[in-house]
Amino acid sequence: MLQPALVEKILNAALESGGDFAEIFVEDRTDRDLGMLGGVVERALSGRDYGIGIRILQGVFSVYAYTSDLREEYLIETARKAARALKGSSGDLVLNFNQIQFEDRHPILQRPSAAQNSRKIELMRQAHEALKTSHPLIEQTSVGILNWEQKVLIANSDGLWAEDTRTYTRMRMSAIAVDGTQRQSGFRGPGAYAGLELLEQMDIAAEAREAGRIAGTMVKAGYAPSGQFPVVIENGFGGVLFHEACGHGLESTAVGIGASVFAGKLGQQIASPLVTAIDDGTIPNAWGSLNIDDEGMPTQRNVLIENGILKGYLIDKVGSRRMNMPPTGSGRRQSYKFAPASRMNNTFIAEGSSTREEMIANTEYGIYAKSMGGGSVNTATSDFNFAINEAYMIRNGQIAEPVKGATLIGKGLEALQHIDMVGNNLDHGQGMCGSISGSLPVNCGQPTLRVSKMTIGGRKGE
Amino acid sequence: MNITDFQEMLFRQGEQYGYTDMEIYYSGSRAISVVVRQSEVDTYRITETNGLSFRGVIGGKMGYAFTEKIAEDSMMFLLEEAEGNAAVLEMEDDDELFAGSEQYPQLNTYSALLMQTDPDILIQAAQKVERAVLASDERISMVRQSAASVREHELLIANTRGLHCHQQDSVGSVSVYLLAGEGQDTVTGGWFEYSLTDFSEIQLEQIAARAVEETVSKLGAASVPSDNYPVILREDAASSLLQTHASIFSAENVEKGFSSLVGKLGQRIAGSNITLIDDPLMPGVPGASIFDAEGVAARRNELIQEGTLMTFLHNRKTAAKAGAETTGNASKGGYKGKIGVSYHNLYLQPGTRSLDELIASTERGILITELQGLHAGTNPTSGNFSLACLGYLIENGKISRPVNQITVSGNFYDLLGEVEELGNDLRFTGSCTSPSLKIASLSISGS
């Protein structure tokens, strides 16, 4: 993407006024986005992102500059401009770049390209047909296939030279059910670090019927009650509870400056002994996986909590300098327009021994959260919230009527303590995680689990 | 390669390729921003980004593609990708390019003075705010970040039908975000102000004072019992709720069945105290603009007039479908987007009494100052929302204590008919704004 001689010139320019580390991140990304509404192809977009981010560090002070103008003189001038934010001087840097070697753990079978448009449209049509017939109340369907391929070059003044290509595919399917004046949508969005083979191997109709079933069920649902209840959270994307309640608070971006409730708690019991939590960027072809992170370090499997005891954090390069701990392969950014920050990859809670049936049967009165929406957290206080897309009441140890409009809130530290049953059925779901370094694909996973007490924001008296 | 040269060469190549009509939508922005922590500069960002989307008619169909690489070797990519995309589109509607409006309004949205602000001034401003925050109250445990920035943005739309629209805007801002603690209790808060004309106009002491007040007043918060309460949504919370639901006024969403306002045109959908206006021509606000993403001259539109739904927001395509006239609300989510529909500067017409007066007229209720998880806890299609929030308990017409660990639930469509009173405190911080709203009753879930 850029020649080593030019990269060396840029890094030298970046370090000419006292920086102790400089890095470039070059990106060439192609996006393809097809969309169908009500069975008609109405969206076909493609394009190319292209640019460079230049980062200079002096201790934990960082300068970041980016540009999409890749002319040689301009790049050197941009690096020089960024360097002027530092006061100091530096000698010449002679770099001997070492191409880092890593195993490609994520084989791509069918690379996305425009030539496959007709095949993608066939697959979208399958989804549309299944959505439309999934429930008698479905009135509208929307289907899309998003592919992108991101080529990156990461090089730095330590001599690191790393190049990789990341390929992603995601299908989104949504159905809208209408019942009188009520409208409700149901959604499924499977995705992977993979090519079109993801969709060829998937039971598209089954996924689509699931979206339709959610819309059709929830449009007839009454409102969830308000107050504090035990909550059984279904496996898969239910792991967004841990992602919000705890995962963000373990990122060095917050921990490194002491702005997290988890700062200074290594080795302490912070969760129920039933909880073991892991962030793993190496799972083959998983939506949140990477060969190397966006600072060029191979990803790894990081145990965050083991049997309730805090074992580790997610650490990027600046966090590593702040915390005096090694980085964990967790430096990520959406694009060259963002400086890297410590972020999650595939975060999940490890399996326990209970069955879903036991958890429901052991709950006298509570909420069964079958499918989750997204949420957010304040890492300094661990106050979190997230939405339930599909929920049911549990009465006398049995799943009863569906309820809608339920948001779960709580404090991460308390929620972790209140997990009192963990299932034996780990699964993962896909989401986009938005934070300081942009919007990134992440997996959230867990087995079915029960939290003994959470606040549900429904509506009283309805 | 400069954008005008690029455009001319692209259109020449496109014509040879077989395109009969072509358009570019170019957007470029430049910014300098600094973040200060513990009186040192923590991060310093210099950013510059350009991108363009191309659309063109080939074989009688419109195709789209975009690139951030404004260089000769991108031209064939754009022409080929757009052709491939045009080939698969199945809409039958005509997507003809626009030759331009007869007249465009005049509006000054760019300040060269603002963009000349020395980076050292930005650093000093952020340092000054941080110092002022730390000096003001011993319960402040940390300034997480104090930031200052200036940014400018440029937009150019040009096509082979003769359209040539150009606009530049700029903004400078200062923000601070902090932590305060007392015993085991930790709270966070912040504030920001901006200027569209002159960085030195930004009142740094006021930002610091307001950020501190916003934060320490949350200390000692507790939940309230679950019940229905009268609720006042403070202007910032009300603005974010309106913004999350504003897509229901887009004719595109109405047509696609994503809005429950289908078939409601000309009907009463809100209380008679509700007037909702999109006014891109209002000077001195962030959402001001003189043309939309199709190059149609922007204009003021009243969407709701005293409770009655007067119009949806239209672009040329949705207007043609509905047999209406475009309202000048074509939008594009940057150069990567496709033409859609959105507001420019949407606001609810304010009432006459201040927030303090609204509080004083509330016997017992909740003042909500912040709504969280809006991306997940709202459903614009159904209008239902259930959101974590923060605020204060009002007792005997006064704020009695801070409240946390509660949610507020309701339905946005119903809420439009249930606003008892609107405050006079409209503050334009973005392109969608509401004054404080007092609602007779909303469901609060707590302890």
From TrEMBL, chain A:
GO molecular function terms noted in the UniProt entry: metallopeptidase activity
Keywords: Hydrolase, Metalloprotease, Protease
Domain of life: Bacteria
Domain Metalloprotease TldD/E C-terminal: 226-458
Domain spans labelled Metalloprotease TldD/E central: 112-217
Metalloprotease TldD/E N-terminal domain residues: 22-84
UniProt key word Protease: yes
InterPro entries, alphabetized: Metalloprtase-TldD/E_C, Metalloprtase-TldD/E_cen_dom, Metalloprtase-TldD/E_N, Peptidase_U62_metallo, TldD, TldD/PmbA_N, TldD/PmbA_sf
GO cellular component: cytosol
Biological process annotations from GO: proteolysis
Keyword Hydrolase among record annotations: yes
Family classification: Belongs to the peptidase U62 family.
Name of the protein: Peptidase C69
Source species: Paenibacillus bovis
From TrEMBL, chain B:
Domain Metalloprotease TldD/E C-terminal stretches: 227-446
GO biological process annotation, one example: proteolysis
Family listed: Belongs to the peptidase U62 family.
Segments forming domain Metalloprotease TldD/E N-terminal: 23-86
InterPro entries in alphabetical order: Metalloprtase-TldD/E_C, Metalloprtase-TldD/E_cen_dom, Metalloprtase-TldD/E_N, PmbA, TldD/PmbA_N, TldD/PmbA_sf
Any one Pfam family match given in the protein's UniProt record, by short name: PmbA_TldD_3rd
Keyword Hydrolase carried by entry: yes
Domain of life, per lineage: Bacteria
Protein name as it appears in the record: Zn-dependent protease
GO cellular component: cytosol
Domain (Metalloprotease TldD/E central): residue spans on this chain: 119-219
GO molecular function, one term: metallopeptidase activity
Keywords attached to this entry: Hydrolase, Protease
Species this chain originates from: Paenibacillus bovis
